[in-house]
Design a protein that fits this description.
2 domains, 12 helices, elongated, mainly alpha, about 300 residues, about 80% helix, about 0% strand
Length: about 300
């Protein structure tokens, strides 16, 4: 699925609001547990319009695919009645095909302006930016150039597109339960991470504070220094760029940074797998990954702030 990212006034407004929210967060919540979680909210506000564009484009592409077989069926019927292909295209363009209608009307206009049918069809396919339509039109053109019967080719293409649609719908239906289960499993995973951070790690820190040197078993020992290094708390310094980068690097190698990276990595690959299984393309996987990563970042950083 192709994705066109336009940059309009509403995108600029959303980015400005995101920056304003970030400044408010920095001024009023810098030393609170909400500071880092609110950063992801500010970022989400900033890219919200691009996010909306993604979903609108995704819905439009699905509608294009669903209406394309109807257009081809009408075209086949007109050609069978004795009309030339060019006249048939102009005739069927008067029917409403939803999101496909503007493209069909433009196709008919090009044919009326004496643009060759092959070129007009190719322009039509490219402007929809839909992989299924592009492949179908390319097949029609190639078959006609090779001397095939245009009616038979169009009927075959229609059957193929309908079959592809059925397969996609069947796959999406069969994977729906697994999709819900995966989201539930990920939420449980985050809950386990939070419990480890807020209960297990403080318990280890308490043991260390009582100066337990280590527990030996079979010649192995855990020193208090090792424990101290593992559970150390690193505060990020915002006083200067150098201090921020240095403390951020130290924080990423601390237990809190490691926990956050684990959650984000899990969210990234879980989302990609879900999208690939349910809809068959990585762009849908990116959608699930962004949702899971946003939730993971918010939950883990808020839990870390509460623990601090």
């Amino acid at each position: 699925m192709a994705l066109n990212l336009t940059f309009e006034k509403r995108h600029i407004i959303a980015i400005v609001f995101g920056i304003i929210f970030f400044v408010i967060d920095f001024i009023f919540f810098l030393r609170t547990a909400w500071f880092v979680p609110l950063i992801i909210i500010a970022v989400s506000i900033g890219w919200s319009q691009f996010w909306i564009d993604f979903f609108v484009n995704s819905r439009k592409q699905k509608e294009l695919e669903s209406m394309f077989p109807e257009f081809v069926r009408n075209l086949v019927g007109s050609v069978k009645s004795g009309m030339p292909v060019s006249k048939a295209i102009v005739y069927v363009s008067k029917t409403d095909y939803g999101a496909l209608t503007p493209h069909v009307v433009k196709l008919a206009n090009q044919v009326e302006w004496s643009i060759p049918v092959h070129k007009a069809l190719m322009n039509f396919a490219n402007e929809t930016k839909n992989g299924v339509i592009k492949r179908s039109i390319a097949t029609v053109i190639e078959a006609e150039v090779s001397g095939g019967n245009i009616e038979d080719v169009l009927e075959t293409v229609t059957s193929s597109v309908i079959e592809i649609k059925k397969i996609k719908l069947s796959r999406k239906t069969s994977i729906h339960a697994q999709l819900v289960q995966s989201y539930i499993i990920f939420i449980v995973f985050l809950g386990v991470m939070v419990v480890i951070q807020n209960l297990l790690i403080p318990y280890i820190a308490d043991i260390e504070s009582k100066n337990i040197e280590g527990v030996s078993e079979g010649g192995m020992a855990i020193s208090s220094a090792a424990l101290s290094g593992a559970i150390r708390t690193v505060q990020i310094d915002y006083s200067s760029v150098g201090a921020f980068i240095g403390t951020l690097g130290a924080w990423l190698t601390s237990i809190r940074g490691v926990f956050l990276m684990l959650a984000l990595i899990q969210a990234l690959f879980a989302g990609l797998v879900l999208g690939k299984l349910s809809e068959g393309d990585l762009s849908s996987g990116a959608k699930h990954s962004l949702i899971l990563m946003t939730v993971a970042f918010f939950v883990i950083t808020l839990a870390q702030g509460a623990m601090g």
